């Protein structure tokens, strides 16, 4: 497994945190869902 570390503005993090709480999912899971729903590819 590969870790991905990013720096984002606090305002964006707060929005992500609020959405994760509203959906009752961990932030990590919300980020993975968003990544796959946008079709963003990382690596090969």
Quick tags:
44 residues; mainly alpha; globular
Task: Give the topology.
Blueprint: H1 10-23, H2 27-38
Helix pairs in contact: 1-2
Short description:
With 44 residues, the protein is mostly helical. The chain has helices at residues 10-23, 27-38.
Question: Can you give a write-up of this model?
Answer:
With 44 residues, the chain is an all-alpha fold. It has one domain (7-39). The chain is built from two helices and no strands. It has helices spanning 10-23, 27-38. Helix 1 packs across helix 2 (27-38). The longest helix has 14 residues, at 10-23.
Distance between the termini: 14 Å
Major sheet summary line: none
Nearest-integer average pLDDT: 83
Number of DSSP strands?
0
Tell me the helix content.
Answer: 55-70%
Tally of DSSP helical segments: 2
Order of helices and strands: HH
Low-confidence stretches: none
